[in-house]
């Protein structure tokens, strides 16, 4: 897990971890799925709902939901009988069994979104599963939307070498996001790259997927 770096990066050092077997959703949670959750629980719709610019809303049922906070994502996961993946589980699933590779599909960056000619944005989200899955059969682990995971964010957490089922630091305001998005460059889309955002943050490029104990 992680990548060695001499520049003081939060994804360094590379280290071994042991995690129990788990299930991971092969797709990111979609607009249609999240809408069903909102209708069933009277929860507020996402921040950018029915804003065509961001492919969010009723007209884009199979695109990943965005504009949801960590708390929103966690609530959906519980409602669905699942949970958010830990950061270690997320990276394991993203790597697809490939050792030391930068991306879920190898070491060479591949653009994963199509240019839009009718807006000022260069790219946008794509419907889930449009591109090839990795070797574990999991789709869109790099570059569709950033994904919330369960862990709190600590810049130097990897230096603590938590080996068995790591779940992140006990304290912290920010939560980890992984995978990069349509709005990210190649570095952010690497399987080991990590960032933190406030748990109440909502963003046009952040969504999530769920996991479940075996």
**Tally of structural domains:** 1
Strand content: 5-15%
Coarse morphology: globular
Number of helices: 3
Largest beta sheet: what is the strand line-up?
4-3-2-5
Overall CATH architecture: Alpha-Beta Complex
Helix content: 10-25%
Q: What is the ordering of alpha helices and beta strands?
A: EHHHEEEEE
Structure commentary:
The chain has 214 residues and is of the alpha+beta class. The protein has a single domain (1-214), classed as paralog of FGE (formylglycine-generating enzyme) (Alpha-Beta Complex). Helices cover 14% and strands 12% of the residues. The chain has three helices and six strands, in the order βαααβββββ. It has helices at residues 31-41, 70-79, 87-95; strands spanning 22-24, 146-152, 174-178, 194-198, 206-208, 211-213. The strands form two sheets. It has a four-stranded mixed sheet with strand order 4-3-2-5. Strands 1-6 form a two-stranded antiparallel ribbon. The chain is globular. The model is unreliable at 113-121 (pLDDT under 50).
